[in-house]
Design goal:
The complex is a heterotrimer.
Chain A (H helix, E strand, L loop, with lengths): L4 E2 L3 H27 L1 E3 L5 E3 L3 H8 L1 H31 L4 H12 L6 H11 L6 H8 L10 H29 L3 H9 L4 H29 L3 H6 L11 H11 L3 H32 L1
Antiparallel strand pairs in A: 2-3
Chain B lengths: L7 H23 L15 H22 L4 H18 L1
Chain C lengths: L1 H5 L1 H10 L4 H38 L3 H6 L11 H8 L1 H34 E2 L3 H13 L2 H14 L6 H25 L3 H9 L4 H12 L1 H17 L2 H5 L8 H12 L3 H21 L4 H5 L5
Classes of the chains: A mainly alpha, B mainly alpha, C mainly alpha.
Chain lengths: 289, 90, 298
């Protein structure tokens, strides 16, 4: 960190990135801000309304529900995926041919387009043509993700765990591979138990990757859209309508530009806050090292 | 540009942000700032404090809009003071 | 040995009394843990692949067979679903479109991210940390937030329904990710290499292309893989920015399904075909991808 050279010409190297991301990020963001303070019927007929949409959006109970649902959902999948991912990473072989095969197999769900993930579980969870649905009715559970909110939740969570645990597992796996063999030898000499090895050797080495993993998973689950959209369409009722879904419904479905823009901004501010907290934590941890 | 539906207040807002960024950069070139610790629980540079100030101001405005019927200008004045305190002692 | 498995506790205590060599017990324990680990891994992978297998299985069945009951193997093996996709241009062009804009995105992301990542890993400059954070926040921002003006933005510059529009839009999350990963890989390269090269009279571009890029080859491969991955799986932006000419396979799947009233076999076949490119790509980077998943920071 200390070895970096002070050089403002480095800005020339960063410029292309800045321009390309600014084109797709800053201009739309400005537009969203403009929309959020106006009532727009068409580009010529628009009225300045000030903060009215913000008031409406913040006090909207549907959005409170969506936000609450979103937090519960994100926390649920994190509490399942992180421990499960660590377990899978610990079980994966580190050397030889088996390591590559295990790696590729575990990574497969990450490479499936999100709508296909939704389709897979849409099929898999149906009692008539899907294995999981059929299995559930076989063991005597009345399971139907399309009409029962609890079942819909279960399926969406299960789908996310299926889809994203591999990411946590692969992150941890790469963290584990970076531990020098000497550490394990020392542990063997001390006759440390399996738990002690995990607690005092492996877990400390995993903290860094785990923070990245939690950051990515939290953020990505916070913007989840496609999978539940394909699987349940946000239903039954609005039981699986998360923030992005609610936003898209308002923006595209009802074409309420103003409220949708205000909603976007509130959503964006929340994301920005969470992202900043995580980023500062990561940076401070790297500094302490 | 027409499709962006500009209004005077939002245009002023973005010009303001732009001026602040340019100003901060010039300030940084004229007198480079060192990281320090104020009342915030972490070491910050000027830019960090500016970001914290802007983000918290945004949330303060939202809280004002949601919870009270007071004119939004009151929140803005309050935030300006908050920003000053943060930049000086944060 | 057979006894040991039935009464492990008494066996263990007896071994201690008999002063059996400690390491052999530890080794056996380690081996048992290893076997348990392998078993657990196999179980996990089987559960992981089961839904995918089910899709594959369905894609080889006719619709009547799918709806008539469950079976683990297609009784009436058919390639008809695949034939339908490969003979209809609206279907297979979807794959071509997707691959086209994903490749474009990959190239653009790498070209702009390489110099930027170098700057972040080697230099301090005004606003570097804030710039980095801003990039990161774009990776984290939900596409739904930008959805509203994207359509107008790309229409106004005349790029609507072109591949480059989707490629550019996807840059909003692939470029920050590429910078993040590459910065991690580049920080692992000692600075002395740069300095020696400059002393030897290399100019910056020459040094960068001739020496530095070959050094982080694996990092570039992994970055390309991640750009591919996140651009390939995204639907919301790709669907919004296209209508006919550049429509991705993901969008074609959703439309055709609702129109033809759930053609399950065809849907499954289309789904299976979307998985294949990803598997090919990961095969090429399998040796480096583990490090890439930690964003080059291990």
């Amino acid at each position: 960190m200390q070895t970096k050279v002070e050089n403002n010409k480095a800005w020339f190297l960063v410029m292309p990135v800045f321009l390309i991301v600014a084109f797709s990020a800053i201009i739309p963001l400005m537009t969203v801000v403009n929309y959020s303070v106006q009532d727009i019927f068409d580009p010529q007929t628009r009225y300045f309304v000030g903060t009215e949409w913000f008031k409406q959006v913040i006090l909207d109970s549907r959005l409170h529900e969506a936000l609450l649902r979103q937090f519960i959902y994100s926390l649920t999948i994190l509490t399942i995926e992180v421990p499960l991912g660590i377990c899978v990473a610990l079980m994966m072989p580190t050397k030889g041919r088996g390591a590559s095969i295990a790696l590729i197999l575990v990574a497969i769900p990450l490479l499936i387009p999100w709508n296909v993930v939704g389709t897979i579980w849409q099929i898999f969870g149906r009692a008539d043509i899907g294995l999981f649905g059929a299995f559930m009715s076989y063991i005597g559970v009345d399971y139907n993700y399309a009409s029962n909110p609890t079942d819909a939740w279960l399926t969406v969570v299960l789908m996310d765990v299926w889809h994203w645990t591999p990411l946590v597992a692969l992150l941890c796996y790469s963290g584990l591979r970076a531990i020098p063999e000497v550490y394990y030898q020392a542990a063997r000499i001390d006759r440390a138990s399996r738990w002690a090895v995990f607690r005092y050797i492996q877990l400390p080495k995993l903290t860094n990757v785990l923070i990245i993993g939690v950051l990515l998973r939290f953020m990505d689950s916070f913007m989840i859209y496609t999978e539940p959209f394909v699987l349940t369409g946000g239903g039954p009722g609005s039981s699986t309508t998360f923030l992005s879904q609610a936003l898209v419904q308002q923006a595209i479905g009802q074409f309420d530009l103003g409220p949708a823009a205000a909603f976007s901004l509130v959503y964006f501010l929340i994301i920005l806050l969470v992202c900043w907290v995580f980023y500062t934590t990561i940076m401070n941890m790297q500094k302490d090292k | 540009m027409a499709w962006m539906s500009w209004t005077l207040p939002t245009a002023l807002f973005f010009i303001g942000i732009g001026v602040i960024l340019v100003g901060m950069t010039t300030w940084q070139i004229l007198s480079p700032c060192v990281e320090r610790r104020g009342f915030l629980p972490l070491a910050t540079t000027r830019g960090d404090r500016l970001f914290i100030g802007l983000l918290s101001s945004a949330f303060i405005h939202l809280a004002f809009v949601a919870l009270t019927d007071v004119n939004i200008a009151v929140a803005t004045v309050l935030c300006a003071f908050w920003m000053l305190i943060l930049m000086r002692w944060g | 040995m057979t006894q040991s498995s039935t009464t492990p506790i008494s066996h263990n205590s007896r071994v201690t009394k008999e002063q059996a060599p400690v390491h052999s017990r530890a080794e056996r324990k380690a081996r048992n843990a290893n076997i348990r680990g392998r078993f657990g891994l196999v179980l996990y992978v089987v559960l992981l692949l089961l839904p995918i297998y089910w899709l594959l299985n369905m894609s080889f069945k006719t619709n009547t067979e799918i709806l008539s009951g469950l079976s683990f193997f297609p009784a009436d093996f058919t390639l008809e679903n695949y034939a339908k996709i490969f003979s209809d241009s609206t279907w297979y062009m979807g794959y071509v479109n997707s691959i086209f804009y994903v490749s474009m995105n990959m190239v653009i992301s790498l070209l702009v991210a390489l110099p930027a990542a170098y700057a972040f890993s080697r230099y301090r400059f005004i606003g570097d940390k804030h710039m980095f954070f801003w990039l990161l926040s774009n990776r984290m921002a939900p596409p739904a937030v930008f959805l509203l003006p994207f359509f107008q933005l790309y229409s106004s510059v005349g790029l609507f329904d072109t591949h480059i529009a989707v490629a550019l839009a996807h840059c909003i999350f692939t470029v920050p990710l590429a910078v993040w990963i590459l910065e991690g890989f580049m920080s692992g390269v000692p600075r002395e290499i740069d300095e020696t090269a400059y002393i030897d009279g290399y100019s910056f571009p020459k040094f960068f292309v001739r020496i530095f890029i070959p050094l982080i080859r694996s990092g570039i491969g992994v970055t390309a893989f991640f750009c591919f991955m996140f651009s390939w799986v995204e639907l919301l932006l790709a669907r919004t920015l296209t209508s006919v000419e550049a429509k991705p396979i993901a969008a074609i799947m959703t439309r055709t399904v609702s129109a033809s009233g759930m053609d399950w076999g065809l849907l499954a076949a289309a789904g299976v075909l979307t998985i294949i490119p990803g598997m090919l790509v990961i095969y090429f980077v399998r040796n480096h991808v583990a490090k890439g998943f930690a964003l080059g920071r291990v």
